[in-house]
Amino acid sequence: MNGNKVLYERRGDIALLTLNDPDRRNALSREIVRGVSCALDTALTDGMRAVVIAAHGPSFCAGANIDDLRDGWMESPAPDEDPAILFKRIAEFDRPVVAAVHGAAVGGGMELTLACDLVVASGSAWFCMPELGHGVIPNTGLALLSRVIGLRRASELILTRRRVPADESLAIGLVNRVLPGDELLDEALLLAGKVVESVPPGALKAAKLNLLAHTAIDWPRVVVSPLDVPKDEWQEGLAAFNQKRAPDYERFWQPVRMTAACR
Question: 44, CA 20 to 30 Å: which among 15, 141, 204, 231?
């Protein structure tokens, strides 16, 4: 499916979606976003009762594909290639979605886990939102992270951009379970199966609908919020990342200091 960047497999009543671009650490690309959305369509067509999202390679997902970001993805993504729209779909999906995370879940990869209903992680898993250091914002993370772990913790993780290891992610509620890597996928599938066992679909859908209603997210704002970042700042951040150098943000602070001095 989609050049095999996203694999689809039926495991009984559970749809297993596997990110399959290990050479790029499963970075969210246009192709992967389209592939996951297409796989969700297939899961509904097949009558699957739940979805598990896993990944091949050493990382779960290393964030947005930088080449796509520099190629206009920041400003005008097509709807079927927009990660925020995909995350909204996962959060509002009729069926429960479980993420099985190993290795790095960075930036958009961490946002992908936040959109899921439940998350299981291996001991090697770690989470990070480094976007501000690249001159961009974690637009979906800004909307979802605080409802998962609380505002203070969410502010710290987004502003400091530090890594959160598996044990801490469990302690703060970022994941539901941590277990050995060789048990990760089986546990995710088992958990998904337990969720849908002896539960009718309408009641399950209603439970998800009302959980979301009580913690409403302004999705239209999420989708357009990347445009709040000045273009020259994110261009510098992405260029620095691509050139493997430290970004030069000092020049952007200069007008801020001058404005403050005039008050």
Answer: 141
Asked if 79 and 170 sit in the same domain, the reply is yes
CATH of the domain at 53: 3.90.226.10
Same domain, 15 and 58: yes
Q: Which of 9, 31, 81, 111 is catalytic?
A: 111
Alpha helices in the chain (DSSP H): 30-45, 66-68, 83-91, 108-115, 139-149, 151-160, 166-171, 184-196, 201-213, 219-224, 231-242, 250-261
3-state secondary structure 129-155: CCHHHHCCCCHHHHHHHHHHHCHHHHH
Active site residue 183: no
SS3 state of residue 74: coil
- Whether 256 and 184 map to the same domain: the answer is no
> Which tokens in the block code for residue 102?
């190993």
111 belongs to the catalytic site: yes
- Residue 177's DSSP bridge partners are 120
What pLDDT is attached to residue 74?
65
| Mean pLDDT (10-residue bins), the chain, 263 residues | 82 97 94 96 97 97 78 74 95 97 97 98 98 94 96 98 98 98 97 96 94 90 92 91 93 74 58
Question: What residue numbers bound the domain in which 257 lies?
Answer: 230-261
Catalytic residue among 9, 81, 92, 131: 131
- Please report the pLDDT score of residue 261 as a whole number: 56
Our count of domains for the chain comes to 2
Say yes or no: 90 and 126 in one domain.
yes
